[in-house]
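COURSE: Structural Biology Practicum
ASSIGNMENT: Worksheet 4, Part C
STUDENT ID: 0417
INSTRUCTIONS: Below are two proteins. For each, the amino acid sequence is given first, followed by its structure token string. Answer the questions at the end about the second protein only.

PROTEIN I
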Amino acid sequence: MKQKHPTAQLLLALTPLVVLMVLLWFNVGEVYGDDALSGSNQVILMLAAFVAAVIGVFNGSSVEAVFTKIKTNIHDTTQAIFILILIGGLAGTWLLGGVVPAMIYYGLDLINVQFFLPTAVIISALISLSTGSSWSTTATVGIALMGIGQTIGIPAPVVAGAVISGAYFGDKLSPLSDTTNLAPAMAGTDLFTHIRYMLYTTVPSLIIALVLFTVLGLGYKDGALDAAEVAEVQSLLSAQFNITPWLFLVPAVVILLISQKVDALVAITVGIFSGLAAALVFQQPLLQELGTGTHPIYEIAMRSVYGSIAVPSEHPILSDLLSTSGMSGMLGTVWLILSAMAFGGAMEASGFLATITNAIIRFARGSASLITSTLVACGVLNVTASDQYLAIVVPGRMFKDVYRERGLAPENLSRTLEDSGTVTSVLIPWNTCGAYQSSVLGVATGDYFMYAFFNLISPVMTLIYAWVGIRIKKIED
């Protein structure tokens, strides 16, 4: 690559990012709104990728290098894409099998409206801790909590914020989590030292989030369903489905498999077949009602995996909850991820990601500014590379030696990588995590953004610790 003045090189590197942000602002804010993810945002990401590639080629990169990096990025997200598609099938079969309706039915008996939001955070956190996966948590109990919350009158974005907050707390601290293992590996420390050091910022962040959700939940008391309305909803559910506690075996099997480190693709596939088995055993009348053609049971079972199904309901909330788009409903998100990987690949192959990150490092003088620079670098990578793993790996590699030279223990770096790289990924609509959670929970990233309290508080908590000088471990200690 041709050598240029650092300032000129930085301006070139920032140009595709500025183009992306301006076009997305106009596209979402002025034209499409929540419908932007149906295709227009994907086009903008491809356009920004083209801009990055053209500038990169004129700056000395080769077309072959750009395409190779894009293909590598897409290859690295293959498992995430297959998981996303399978989750669509899981949602459909669990609806047809009565699994999600059963969770809503019994959940209405157990959960107090005023304390639903902090309860949702805690439940999501416990499941995520045991499985090590925020994705699996939202795809199982998260879907059920969304249904319960909307049924009792709490807006979907608020419920999604609570579910995501709990899921990412557990994901950060679970020894089974891939990011929890990746961060200390990049920083040069061991897993359990990393987890212990994260407790200092993660637990206070969760406590603050729980307080905020508790206060927020008190405001929904007046608009919540009364006992008669809850009984009516339960009656409508039991009229359509055979509700039984045996249906809880289906999610229990999936959670157990994931907690035992069975591959997520295998566990979710087992969940799909378990949902179909539950439908055949417990929901025969519903299958006959919804199925069409000469083989109605086969047709509706197959359609629940790949396509749209809707269970008729007189209740307006239930009519929305008892419908799903199956695997086909996830294809727009897959398109978004592929487009984001193209943009990230073009930026990386052109050397623009390294240029931006190096520019951030130059501002780091003391320990606090170094940690701040790491947080910013992780955030920039989540926006530009659109992948939380790159947002951990790239800054981890670039900052590792700098932390050592400044006398900072590696767990400072590993904690910072997770407090920014992991938790902020879900706040970016075109990031793989943001796209996934938006599709699974049925809420736009821009809508749940302000309610994902834990994810917003975590990087702020790290900044406070850094600038006040709390728990900044030195190597000589």
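PROTEIN II
(use this one for the questions)
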Amino acid sequence: MAQELADRRKALRNSCQVIHGTGIPDAPAELFRTAAWCTESGIKQDVYGEGELIEAFEAKIASLFGHESARFLPSGTMAQGIALRIWCGAGGHFGMHPSSHVEIHEERGYSHLFGLRATLVGEFDREMQPKHLAAVKDPLATLLMELPSRENGGRLPTWEELQELCDLARARGMRLHLDGARVWQAQVAYGRSFSEIGALFDSIYVSFYKDIGALSGAMLIGSAEFIDEAKLWQRRMGGTLYTLLPNVASAASRFDDQLAKLPGYRDKALQLAQALSPIQGLQLLPDPPHTSMLHVVLSLDPEAALLARDRVAEETGLWLFGSARREPLPGFSRFELTIGEAAMQLDVEQIAAGFRSLLEHDSV
């Protein structure tokens, strides 16, 4: 029964207009698009990370953030583990927000693989602030910061708070590493250049499938010395693949055009928040959103939320969200909503009407 329900829901989703992120991935289309770009551009594959395309793209991203060097890696998990191991050394100690991807989605790899210890800095449902770091007495080698902080709705400290945080960390002798998986959104929200953001950090990780919409792939950015050491750890971790051509080409061919769309995504997120905020039984976190992502809390438990979502999908052809997680308060659930190419295909009122239908229908 459970599998039948899952199959039915998958078929329903595939027949609908998804509003989250880039929509339903079309792997064949992306591979054909990337192959055509490679043909038109005369691209040749890299071999173990060496080649004209990959090296030029690495240099481009490093320069964008005002750093000397960069390395394309298969995954962000690998990139972040490498950065923490370099800055902390064997058995070292670092600080991070309680909602960090490194803490809650990576099976504590920092501990199991590298023997590192972590101190959680700040409150889960708030962005990291200077007072949170000031309260930590542990001697930390590194402070890992995520901009924006995904698990609490894409929150950001203010630019002034961010500068104060970084100054405080440096005054205590810490290295600063940025989890910039979605830094593309943070740059738009801050209205600062990528190089201004980059100047605050010793190393930076960025993702190319989040917001850019490319195949999987990540970049680790820092000084030439740091990246040389990162290459050594990449090989030790089995990340020096024979070629990364599809991933690099997908990212490089998309990057400039996609980056130019991000201000529009944030504008749409702000417009949508204004339309959704008055709906009874729905709460936005944060409200207004800091970036082009936010969390939506429904006055429905997860099972009821999914059933209501299915009904709206059948009635309107809109797929409002995927999974819904249980909130601590009984009878409530939450989901993440990122505004990207999918939502840009719809009017704000269309989306708002879908949510009104979801909550009104359920209350009947």
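ANSWER KEY EXCERPT:
Q1: The chain has 15 helices and 13 strands.
Q2: The chain has a mean pLDDT of 96.
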